[in-house]
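It would be a great kindness if you could assist me with a short task in structural biology. A protein sequence and the structure tokens that stand for its backbone fold form the material at issue. I should value your view on which stretches of the chain appear to form regular backbone elements. The record follows directly beneath this note.
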Amino acid sequence: MGTFVLVHGAWHGAWCWERVRKHLTARGHQVVTPELPSDVAGSGRAEYLAAVNDALESRSEVVLVAHSMSGLVAPLATGNPAVKSLILLAALVPRPEVAWQANGLEPFPEQMRGRLARMNYDELGRSTLDAAVATEIFYHDCAPADSADAVARLRPDASVIYQQTCPALPERRVPTTYVSCRQDRAVDGEWNAAVAQDVLGADVQELDAGHSPFWSMPERLGNLLVDLATR
């Protein structure tokens, strides 16, 4: 059986993987869900990468899965010998020597572009989303009660990582798959998948889901992760 390290994206936390964890552990796999300090003002790539590497400590043959924002961190963790393969799920994909904000709005679909232009920030400089926007962008394909449950758990997000220049990627490379979600309203899967192919040599898969398949179709996503891990 395999070991999966599942990393959450912006505004979320380790909780978002609880439904996928249930299906993976039922099949005998080990699941680790690190908590990124993404709600801590001033935290950025170094702090997030440290949290991922802590999760990899004393492990081997790990399938590292990164959702959304954590795609800016996970490729840097592939230098860790514990990582066997990398799966980028509806993820942002970094380009070495380029800061994410230099991409402008190009990596995002129209629904998200408008929201980013009108983002709210708290007194600590963290971005926040109101419930209606979060539901529309992240959970539009979920049942209303499921959407409400998830949205109630969202938290402010530090914005430092988007301003930081991505360093050179590790020389060590692992098999990488980019999973694009066809109904994604938060991330342009086609744009980011193309970068993943160019920079990481990734294969590309599609899932007929919105941005949060870990919540809308956890069993189907779990099966896909296992399938990709065993190829």
Notes: Residues 1 and 29 are 5 Å apart (CA to CA).
